[in-house]
Design a protein that fits this description.
4 helices, Ferritin, 125 residues, mainly alpha
Length: 125
Amino acid sequence: MGTNKSLYLGLVSLGIGLTLGYGLWGAKTAQAPMDHSQMTMEESMDSMTASLTGKTGDTFDQAFLQEMVIHHEGAVAMAKQVLETSKRPELRKLAEDIIAAQTKEIDMMQEWEKEWYPDSNRMHH
C-alpha cells in the first residue's frame, strides 16, 4: 500500500509539474505569445508565477483565476492523452479522476470570473 501511495503521489506531482509547462506553452492571452517550447519546466513555472508578481487585489485575483484555468486545461489535455495511449489501469483511473475534478474546477473558476469581473474583456474558453 505504501508503494502504491508513493507512486500515486509521485505521478500526481509529475502531472502537476508537466501541466504547468503544458498550460503555459499553449496559453492564449491578449499579450504576444511566448514560445515556451524551449523552456524548462522550472522556467515555465517561473513565467506563470511572474505573471502574478506585483498584482494586488482584484487584479491579482483575476490573473490567478486565469492562470489556474490554463493550468487545469493543460492537466485535462494530458489526462486525455493518457486515456488514448496508456493501458495501465492505475494511470487510466488517475487520468479519469483528473479530468472529472479539474473540469469541475475550471467551470467553477470561470463562473467566479464572470460573476466577479463582468466588465472584463477576457474571452472565456
